[in-house]
Amino acid sequence: MIETRTPGATLAAVPLFADLDADALDALGRAMRARRFRRGEVVFHVGDPGDALFVVTSGAVKITLPSENGDEAILATLRPGDFFGELALLDGAPRSATAAALEPTDTLVLPRAGFRELVSAQPAIRDALFAALAAELRRLTVHVEELHFLDIAGRLAARLARLCDEQGIAGPDGTIRLDAPLTQTDLASMVGCTRQSVNKLLGLFVSDGLLALEREAIVVLDVEGLRRASRR
Length: 232
Hints:
This protein is of the alpha+beta class. The chain folds into 2 domains: about 5-145, Jelly Rolls (Sandwich); about 150-230, Arc Repressor Mutant, subunit A, CATH 1.10.10.10. About 45% of the residues lie in helices and about 20% in strands. It has 9 helices and 12 strands. Strand 9 (about 170) and strand 10 (about 175-180) form a beta hairpin. Helix 6 (about 150-165) packs across helix 7 and helix 6 runs antiparallel to helix 9. The longest helix is centred in the middle third of the chain and has 27 residues, at about 125-150.
């Protein structure tokens, strides 16, 4: 028999809701609706009305800023336990970025009214939300710093090292596996360069013994070496 988790049990693993008791989690779970997105499907576009908070329960989502010529800058990649869409709910402004599924993705969706009621009624949620917003602001500050002060090789090394910290799967031999569904084009969108430049730099990192490339993953052999490469 396949065991299925209730929405409340799923939400208990989300840091934003970690301080809610079981009854509050169950009530929150009943207020949310499940929604699944296909690989590549857009969750919302920049400029759309902000009408809901999304919690990733499986899969992966990218948050991007698209350009008029079809390029995009990837601001963040989100995995299970992460949430997005809160900014437009806080200030009532349209969506400030586009969200799209990187792979088949399941989410739980909390409408605007329920979100605002939750923030008002639960001080722990409000504190956790402020902490998450502060962390996101710090992350974006680091991203701007990298774009301005590092060359392309440094930016890519720094981003790969950060992905190791955020999403990497540690192996028993000290390696770190990045098997998130990120293409070389995605990496280029993260660091502000072309796919060809990323391809060349990955080859150089392989030659330097910093990583190995597999069909579906990047295996980081020396994360400290990547960090040193980002400071050259």
